[in-house]
Amino acid sequence: MELSGHLLSVLIFFPAFGALALLLLRGDDHLWIRRLTFVVSVVEFVFSLFLLRAVPINAPGYSLVEFGHWISAPPINYHLGVDGISMFLVILTTFLTPICVLASWHGVHHRIKEFHVTLLLLEVGVVGVFLSLDLFLFFLFWEIMLIPMAFLIGIWGHERRLYAAMKFVLYTMAGSILMLIGIIWLYNATGSFDLPVIQQMLHDGVLTLSTRTEILLFLAFFLAFAIKVPLFPLHTWLPDAHVEAPTAGSVILAGVLLKMGTYGMIRFCLPLFPEASHRAAPYVAVLAIIGIIYGALVAMVQPNLKKLVAYSSVSHLGFVVLGIFAFQNISMQGAVFQMLAHGVSMGALFLLVGMLYDRRHTFEITEYGGLSTPMPRLAAFFLFVVLSSMGLPMLNGFVGEYLILLGTYLVHWNWAAWAATGVILSACYLLWSYQRVFFGEVTHQKNCALPDTDARENCILVTVVIVTLWMGIGSPFFTRRFAVPCQTVLEQMNRSFAQEATLPGSIPKAAKLDSSGRILASTATPTSSERSGTR
Amino acid sequence: MTPPGTQDILRVLPELAWCSAGVLLMLLQPFVKNRQALTFISMLGAAAGTLVTFKAAFGEGFGGLVQFDIFSLFFHWLIGLVAFLVILASDSYLERENLDAAEFYALILFATAGMGVLASAQELLTAFIGLEMSSISSYILAGYRRDSIKSSESAVKYFLLGSFATAFFLYGIALVYGATGSTNLRTLATADPSSNLVRLGLSLILVGLGFKVAAAPFHVWTPDVYEGAPTPVTALFSAGPKAATFALLLRIFATVHAATDFWFWAFWILAALTMFVGNLGALVQSNIKRLLAYSSIAHAGYILVAMAAITTAKNSDSGLDPGAAYAAVLFYLLSYSLVSVGAFTIVSDLGGQGERYVNTDDFAGLGTRQPFAAAALSVFLLSLLGLPITAGFFGKLYIFTAAIKSKLIWLAILMAINSIIGAYYYLRIIVVMYMHEYKGNVPADAPASLSPTAAMVVIVAVLATLYLGLAPNHILGIVLDPNLILSGR
Predict the structure, then answer these.
(1) Structural domain span for residue B371
(2) For an interface test with A, which of B326, B435, B436 has the most A Cβ atoms less than 10 Å from its Cβ?
(3) Which residues of chain B have pLDDT under 70?
(4) How confident is the model over B24-40, as pLDDT tens digits?
(5) Distance, in angstroms, between A141 CA and closest chain B CA?
(6) I need a labelling partner for B354 at 20 to 30 A (CA). Which of A163, A279, A409, B160 fits?
(7) Which residues of chain B are within 8 Å of residue A111 when distances are taken between CB atoms?
(8) Interface predicted TM-score (ipTM) of this complex, two decimals
(9) Where are the alpha helices (DSSP H) in B315-408?
(10) Total number of domains in chain B
């Protein structure tokens, strides 16, 4: 197929062309602007589904690689590639974008054209981040995507939107400029921005980083990613950004943007800086566990429904970080799965909260109550999504959390134990808030006559529900595809780590490596049977 | 000394072209009343000065007084481009403010010629003449809006502090001459680095030039002068003299061994101080001209980071190649000049008569009122901020790379911190333009759109900014040319 040679470029730039086409439309022709954006984003989604066929399941390394020289000095290349992890994140992005367009059909009233252009440009940036194999290109998309997101929050957001937009940009930029210094430092050491090349150099021992350098570099990258995730205590921008963003902004932010942080950890922090990752793991895990519990506790006492969802996001992403830094294949698969599952269920939760907001223009839980009487369908959808987010078996949230806890348990049972409290707490705050919003008597007169979901909303929600269910039941479809990439990441870590481990003075770590190495070997082949057990 | 021959003349062709164009304009003034014709002639003059560089021959001229090499060629192009754009941008401004055109353009061309001399001076007294040529024209240009108190204040302030700085520079030259018996940079190359007199002289020279590039703590004139001067002139100030002075600094560096050894900490401290003063100062500004003035100080600081990197690399035993750091300075100057001229042009055109609408609040809602101007200004601000696919991003990247290569990690981190501070105030303007509504009604005399000439300048600047941000290869090929790295040793 002609397309497949440049499928990744098409995926990145197709929305940009869509945005250009939008610019040519008349600004007051709202219906056609929405239709065109919807069509563009759906076509983009279909394109991304080609990835499922194009990416081989059991082969390590990157597929569909595109390489072109871009800038001569320093040598920056247009290097794209995809593996099982990034493939699903791209599909998640392209899946959520048309849903966002649909969700904003009535919710966005002014500067319609600019809104949709911004949304498509955001998609360009995010897809670019997931597909770049050149550190520099990665950074470039990482930065580019900031501006559309800031505009989404700042122009179409709620009351304190400017503050939230500014906070979002400054936080992210503070992290990313550190990452830039790290990237340049790495370039100085290696003479290349190319991720596979640098990995090869690490593998061959051409490049050895002193422990101190490695830790500093790790921190430079990790901070940028941790801010994005966000890891406790760097999470303070998130509730503001979420509460003030319009529904589409929240969906993309929670669904995809936060995943860029965890993706970065898997793709860059672990394989490039294994020694530092191992050293940092206990601290990171503690922060992640604090995030899980703290996020859940704060979510519990939120009077603001959207803020509640935002804090639950902090809690859920703590699981992902924990899963990554347990350095187990199972937990890393769980982390990747959780990223996808969280993207879908959090996106759905924000959509539902947005639908409530469209009707009542408030996020205050006390303003609601007894909504299941006027809106039975919305209540049913909401319950479904809440249950999936809680981690009910058969739904998507369960698989990720289970795999993460399982993998973490293998190395540190106490990490898993602490993290498991997050599961219980999430049931508490989600069910409690659900009860306050939907059950009981209708306390406010205004709520009596609220319309139930219309056809458009049904369409969105049914899609999301089907995906949620499918991810819960058919999880091997997903895990099968990122088992090998996760394994590759861990092998890249161990390979470099093994060289370090021969040095005297690191015996405890070497022992740990042995145990994990053994476990890895056992999980590498019978992955599918493992997976069938998990459902 | 032999009388100048053809070869000598060929070395200063651009300056001759700019000066003759300026003189021609003065002569034409009584006869030609049509402003646009004058604009056209002076643009031709600016372009001619740039284009004759093709005819100019490389090499020394006037017995070593000037050196025309690929380095000065680059700066002549840069300065000529800036002059060209500023003249084009001034057309509508002069009409609106009802100012005399011929003298204005002549002064710009004379100033440009002075900067040209600075860029190719290989002798400190030649440099002094160049500095004076550009400065004196600049003093007059700053006060060109005679009926405005601010403009006059700007001129007086610039003149007093500028002469003070020039005195430092001259005194420095005198001391260096006293120590070495020469003012020629080639001779100075072998000056004893440990001589205190040479060191003192060089530091005074640095102070003098520090004034011109607005490095803290010699920056105090900048905000007031930039604010009071007619905005197209501000555009010129922020781009031309700064680039030319950095050219001289680079040349002194490259040639005089003593300077390299001695100036590292000076540049380190100057860079750190300048970045912080500029960025922190810009944070609290509500007047866009002042804000951009402080931002221009901050950017001088970033360039000084690269200068510090060069000093380290040039240092005899470091074994580093200063090429990348040179390229960083040149690339940054180019990208900053384009962006700065573009941004000031927009501010000048939207300022309205008497420059009344130059506060950030006046830009509220610009995104919907004037989508083109707002989008262009956003591109410029994002480039100043250093966001990818703009020229400023690569500028910053090269400086970061140079600094890290020279192991100036702390300076790089300070620069990173400053970039974040900078992000705040640049983004604030974008926020105001796109996310604020104009309070009350837009006054009737506020310009409804950019004038055609200003729009042309803006388009050129935007395209160049994006071009440098997307495909910097070509320019990189020029600035990384090994011949560009001057060495007098």
Answers:
(1) 6-484
(2) B435
(3) 1-2, 261, 315-319, 482-489
(4) 999 988 888 888 888 99
(5) 8
(6) B160
(7) 368
(8) 0.76
(9) 323-350, 366-369, 371-385, 391-405
(10) 1
